[in-house]
Structure formats: structure tokens, C-alpha cells
Amino acid sequence: MPEQMQKQSVLIVDDDIVNIKILGSALIAEYEILFALSAQEGINSAISNQPDIILLDILMPLMDGYEACRLLKEDERTRDIPVIFITAKDSEEDEAKGFDVGGVDYITKPFSLIVAKARINTHISLNLTSQELASKNIILAARLEELEKVRKEIKDIESIIPICSYCKKIRDDKNYWEQLESYMYKYSEMKFSHSICPDCYEQHIIPQLLPDRNNGK
Predict the structure, then answer these.
(1) Among 12, 55, 117, 208, which is least packed by CB within 10 angstroms?
(2) 127: burial class by Cβ within 10 Å (0-12, 13-18, 19+)?
(3) What is the CATH number of the domain that holds 111?
């Protein structure tokens, strides 16, 4: 049987357990539900559980939702998790403040479950797309770096190459001397077959054959 896809997780942070139950019951068929009854508990849960989205109430004791969102966005472990505010506040100033601290959307009380689910689905999809693009950008950057390295190596090869006047070894950029064919193979993957040019044949081979010829006379 094919393995089931893991559910995306939703963290609901609200000091009112009734709101948590209403939202949780509407979302549990599609998402894994996490919840916290205070802002600090929500921050701790976000760090440890890494939910895919956070539904954050604004009016809570000790720490409100704005401050909690600000702290989440300052922490590299949680800054990329989208935050949707749940609030009865619907003034432009309240919405602007929520966006300023890093929220991506609002669900106003009393909320429509259909609208709430649609907004949650939208922002989870957007976040997944953003993560995929970030991953592809990392891969692309690595490939560009590799291409730049190859380009630099080719440029280095095209520059003047020190070669020994006697043994014909080549000095590489790390000051090591190696045989010409080894150097060429390393940078071009050329394969070599050994042969003898006419001049070397006259110089090295014929003298070795002459004694045999003289002995044969």
C-alpha cells in the first residue's frame, strides 16, 4: 500500500479553549492540530514542533499576540512559519500593526469556518511554494559556484603553463611537477596512447638496433 502523506500541522494559540475547540474540530480532518493556551507556551511549541502555520490570538494575558509574533519573527528557528492573527479587532490600525510585526493575514471573530479554512490553505500552499523555491535557489547557487570553479580552472589552463626544458614535466598551481599526460588528463580527461616520433626513433631506437646489426655482419 502506498505510504500516506504526512498532514501539515496547525498551531492554535488562544487563551480561550472554546475557540481552540471550534477551530480544531473544523481543521482536524485535514491537518494535525497543536494548541497552546498562552503566548509563551505558543512560542515554545512553535520552536519544538515547527508547525506549518500558526493561528495566533491577539488579546491574551501577560503577552499579547503582537509581541508573540514579533518574537517568533526574530528567532531564526520560527521566522519562516506564517502567522495568521485571530482577533475581534478589525480596524485598519490593528491590521497594519499585525502586518508590521510579521503576520500574513487576519481571521476576525466571530469567524466563518469556510473562510478560515480557505485562508489557512492558501497560506500553507504559499509557504510550501516559497520553501520549494528557496531549495531550488540553493541548488542553483551551488551549480553556479561549480560552473564558476570550472571556468576558473579553464582560465588557469589557458594561461602560460610552466614546463621543464629537460624532462617536460608541468608545474601546476600548487607548485607540484607532474608528467604532461597526467596534467592533461586531469584537466581535460584526454586519453593518451604512447608512440614514437621520427626524430626520437632516429635518436633512441636506431642506436639500440645498430649493435645487433653489427653483430650480424
Answers:
(1) 208
(2) middle
(3) 3.40.50.2300
